[in-house]
Design goal:
It is built from 2 helices and 5 strands, in the order ααβββββ. The protein has 146 residues and is α+β, with helices and mostly antiparallel strands. The protein folds into 2 domains: 1-38; 53-141, Roll (Nuclear Transport Factor 2, Chain: A), CATH 3.10.450. Strands 1, 2, 3, 4 and 5 form a 5-stranded antiparallel β-sheet that branches.
């Protein structure tokens, strides 16, 4: 009886694998090749660091977001004049890498390297790009207590 169970298990496993290879994988390939996940915008991704008006605005809005997270009576933040690197990852999403010096009343200035992922939410309509309400910070890392 035990030998029959093992043979049945192996046969069912082989049938399941064959069904996945024959039916499920071609379906997944068709879905991945379709336009289902395509986001059509004028902003294209660039694997190299770039500097343009939108990355400058993204940098400024990241700094404003970071500054708003600190208690102004306890902490001061001094931001660099330009980001170390800025990348466009497409669809008006940007990754900003920059330095900020943070000082509290108890500790001296400490330089931190941060990375901010930010997205402009109005798509190809760039008329509201300077308004921070049209941007959303998707992620922030490298800073203590944020």
């Amino acid at each position: 009886m035990n030998k029959k169970k093992i043979i049945l298990f192996v046969a069912c496993l082989a049938i399941l694998l064959a069904l996945q290879i024959k039916f499920l994988l071609p379906l997944m390939y068709d879905i991945a090749a379709s336009d289902l996940f395509l986001v059509d915008s004028k902003d294209s991704a660039d694997p190299m660091p770039i500097s343009n008006d939108m990355t400058a605005l993204a940098f400024s809005h990241c700094n404003s977001h970071i500054n708003s997270q600190f208690d102004s009576a306890e902490t001061t933040a001094a931001f660099a004049s330009q980001p170390t690197n800025a990348w466009s990852i497409g669809n008006y999403e940007y990754i900003i890498n920059a330095t900020v010096e943070i000082a509290t009343k108890d500790t001296p200035n400490t330089a931190y390297q941060y990375v901010c992922r930010i997205q402009y939410e109005n798509g190809d309509d760039l008329s509201g790009a300077s308004n921070i309400e049209n941007w959303s910070v998707e992620g922030l890392t490298g800073l203590p207590d944020l």
